[in-house]
Amino acid sequence: MNALRSFLFTSLAVAAIVGTTAMAAPDAAGSWKLTVGNGAPCNLVLAPDGSAASSADCATGNRVARWRAVADKIELRTASGETVGILVARDGAFAGKRFSDGRTMVLSR
User: Fold this and answer.
1) Around Cβ 103, how many Cβ atoms within 10 Å?
2) Domains by residue range for the chain, with CATH
3) Whether the predicted pLDDT of 70 surpasses 60
4) pTM
5) Engineered SS bond to 76: which of 5, 84, 91, 103, CB 3.0-4.6 Å?
6) Mean pLDDT throughout 53-62?
7) CA dist 106 to 55, 62, 76, 85, 86, Å?
């Protein structure tokens, strides 16, 4: 019984450490290039306060006005709070799909 209890305690401790490490929020504030589908990239600035501002060359329909880090993902939202897309960290960038039409979205530096 002691061996089982020791095994369970160790397993829980390892899971807590791994889960905490894997779920670290990304530090994504700053200037990015946003690419939607095969379109040309445009500038998107993610401010530390959670606001987002895109350049005039961003295609209509992006409507990104807010952002937040959720675990290892970036959630992009409209001003009204509608989710535009959820992007997963990949090799120094973030990639995912736009909810409205399933087009690929990539944030890169």
Assistant:
1) 16
2) 25-108 (2.40.128)
3) yes
4) 0.74
5) 84
6) 77
7) 16, 12, 11, 10, 10
